[in-house]
């Protein structure tokens, strides 16, 4: 076995190991990247939510909920959205992946924040 054959085989094996899981995974997910769970937000500061989602084959877009009330329809898979002013106290922020009929498919994430 020469060095070229060994090197080529190693590169090919590493390519499959590194790139195959990314392509095969494809699991839908919803992630709130800001604010973090338990974070304290200033009452006078501009508030926004940052998120990223992969809706998978059953999902289409995302709905944002503040304290169980629908606050926005989000069409981007990665983005930010301003939050309306919230009264001081605890609040729940949720993003839910929904289908074209706006029905949640069970992929969501929620965080709890406290406005001070």
3D architecture notes:
The strands form two sheets. This protein has a five-stranded mixed beta sheet, with no helix packed on it. The chain is an alpha+beta fold and 116 residues long. The chain contains one helix and eight strands. It is elongated. The termini are far apart. It has a single domain (27-115), classed as Immunoglobulins (Immunoglobulin-like), CATH 2.60.40.
Give me the number of helical elements: 1
Unreliable residue runs: 3-8, 10-24
- Based on the coordinates given, report the CATH architecture: Sandwich
Q: Can you tell me the number of structural domains?
A: 1
Shape category: elongated
| Corresponding CATH superfamily | Immunoglobulins
- Strand-pairing-aware structural class: alpha+beta
First-last Cα distance: 68 Å
What is the CATH class designation?
Mainly Beta
Radius of gyration: 20 Å
Strand-and-helix sequence, N→C?
HEEEEEEEE
Give the fraction of residues assigned to helices: 10-25%
Arrangement of strands in the largest sheet = 2-8-7-4-5
Estimated share of beta-strand residues:
over 45%
What is the arithmetic mean of pLDDT? 86
Quick recap:
The protein is an alpha+beta fold. It has one domain (27-115): Immunoglobulin-like (Sandwich), CATH 2.60.40.
Annotate the secondary structure layout:
Layout lengths: L2 H23 L3 E6 L5 E2 L6 E7 L6 E6 L2 E6 L3 E5 L6 E10 L5 E12 L1
Parallel strand pairs: 2-8
Antiparallel strand pairs: 1-3, 3-6, 4-5, 4-7, 7-8
